[in-house]
TrEMBL record:
The active site is at residues 308, 354, 409. SUPFAM superfamilies: Citrate synthase (SSF48256). It catalyses: propanoyl-CoA + oxaloacetate + H2O = (2S,3S)-2-methylcitrate + CoA + H(+); oxaloacetate + acetyl-CoA + H2O = citrate + CoA + H(+). Keywords: Acyltransferase, Transferase, Transit peptide. GO terms for cellular component: mitochondrial matrix. The keyword Methyltransferase does not apply. It comes from Extremus antarcticus. This is Citrate synthase. It comes from the Eukaryota. GO terms for biological process: carbohydrate metabolic process; citrate metabolic process; tricarboxylic acid cycle.
Length: 472
């Protein structure tokens, strides 16, 4: 498919959003435009006056109230647990797990619209929910699918940039590079350079976010096809949903179950509160009024780290090592011995434990239920199930893990392997496509409610010692 010129892309954008391009979040008339048939931009614009008033009143009435104390351990422990960020889309409870706008993952699976003949929620619906707080209608989701497909043509220079990357450059580095280069198309940056009102920030952030999300499947697929396959990428099918198009551009659309897995994967990996590295970094860079492209790229660079998004790859490597060692003997005794051998060697059990959660990650549970439905007899899934049965007890006895239960990374790699997507270096790119759906709604909200640049106070170790009355 020929890439659109910059002029053509902006013309398409104006056409797509012509009904809502003149909306102002200060205009009371936006309430009248929102309804069951309203576009995403109209629905979001209609909600802004109320949200702005909520924040204004909250700060006026309670701005001086203390939310908690900060300990020196928290300062030196990665700011763990410090209440200091605003994140509207999701809240992570240590016992309940993640809630998207107050809804659990099972509730989202039940309530969000699905593709015809499908059983998993469409990520378009979650994006709508994260941005507006409302569950969209089926027609609204179909319209959003069509809009993303209409915006999906990747500029030719981005395609050339990816094609020029050496095949041994990590897929995540290529992904971040391509998203950074999308800055060339940024409506926000162009409007800021011309001069615009602060009340217009969110609209241009919205347009950039929509364009970026629409481009990601083709960018990800081109990287995958270049590095691991024949370099040929199928065109986006304009009448299909986002998850389907990602699957078919990767080369897996003939398998309906894999398409369903992509819809589930993109939904559950999208958002996990604002304090994780990729979410916080996107928010932080965006607070400097960097474009959504530059902000997301920064977040993707954080996601690429082994302590964050790369973890699912490490889990799969460990499981494959275990399978070679234990063979077909998945007895409780054999798995218990392998787990203890892992711990006694000074290694951790990857995929177990979480910075916040103190129970099994609901994202893990949703993937487990998918596996029970679609691949109950797969040998690797049986291994994962046995580890799930045995590991919590071993880790509890070991005593050095606050949460002995599995997180999302403990399962996703096995599902991808089963359907033939075996290239582990690509897994974090899939995570990155999903994470964009979670972090960009918050970036739009940040600009809409006027969130300032983020600038916490820092001290040296000597200064902290003085603050607590210590002698170094």
């Amino acid at each position: 498919m020929a890439a659109l010129s910059t002029t053509a892309r902006f013309a398409l954008r104006r056409n797509i959003t012509s009904q809502s391009s003149n909306l102002s979040f200060n205009a009371a008339r936006t309430y009248a435009t929102a309804g069951k048939n309203a576009s995403l931009k109209e629905t979001f614009a209609a909600s802004l006056p109320q949200k702005q008033e909520q924040i204004k009143k909250l700060r006026k009435d309670h701005g001086s109230k203390v939310l908690g104390e900060v300990t020196l351990d928290q300062v030196y422990g990665g700011a763990r647990g410090i209440k200091s960020l605003v994140w509207e889309g999701s809240v992570l409870d240590s016992e309940e797990g993640i809630r998207f706008r107050g809804r659990t993952i099972p509730e989202c699976q039940e309530q969000l619209p699905k593709a015809p003949g499908g059983s998993e929620p469409l990520p378009e619906g979650l994006f709508w929910l994260l941005l507006t707080g409302e569950v969209p209608t089926e027609q609204q989701v179909r319209d959003l699918s069509a809009e993303w497909a209409a915006r999906s043509d990747v500029p030719s220079f981005i395609t050339e940039l990816i094609d020029r990357c050496p095949s041994d450059l990590h897929p995540m580095a290529q992904f971040s590079l391509a998203v950074t280069a999308l800055e060339h198309e940024s409506a926000f940056s162009k409007a800021y350079a011309r001069g615009m009102k602060k009340t217009e920030y969110w609209e241009h952030t919205f347009e950039d976010s929509m364009d970026t999300i629409a481009n990601l499947p083709t960018i990800a697929a081109r990287i995958y096809r270049n590095v691991f396959k024949d370099g040929k990428v199928p065109a986006v099918q304009k009448d299909k949903d986002y998850g389907y198009n990602l699957a078919q551009q990767l080369g897996f659309a003939e398998n309906h179950d894999f398409v369903e897995l992509m819809r589930l994967y993109l939904t559950i990996h999208s958002d996990h509160e604002g304090g994780n590295v990729s979410a916080h970094t996107t928010h932080l860079v965006g607070s400097a009024l960097s474009s959504p492209m530059l902000s997301l790229s920064a977040g993707l660079n954080g996601l690429a780290g082994p302590l964050h998004g790369l973890a699912n790859q490490e889990v799969l490597n460990w499981l494959q090592e275990m399978k070679k060692s234990v063979g077909s003997d998945l007895s409780d005794e054999n798995i218990t011995k392998y787990l203890w051998d892992t711990l006694k060697s000074g290694r951790v059990v990857p995929g177990y434990g979480h910075a916040v959660l103190r129970k099994t990650d609901p994202r893990y549970v949703s993937q487990r239920e998918f596996a029970l439905k679609h691949l109950p007899d797969d040998p690797m899934f049986k291994l994962v199930s046995q580890v799930y049965k045995i590991a919590p007890g071993v880790l509890t006895e070991h005593g050095k893990t606050k949460n002995p239960y599995p997180n999302v990374d403990a399962h996703s790699g096995v599902l991808l392997q089963y359907y033939g997507l075996t290239e582990q270096n690509f897994y974090t790119v899939l995570f990155g496509v999903s994470r964009a759906i979670g972090v960009l709604p918050q970036l739009i909200i940040d600009r809409a409610v006027g969130m300032p640049i983020e600038r916490p106070k820092s001290f040296s170790t000597e200064a902290y010692a003085k603050l607590v009355g210590a002698t170094l």
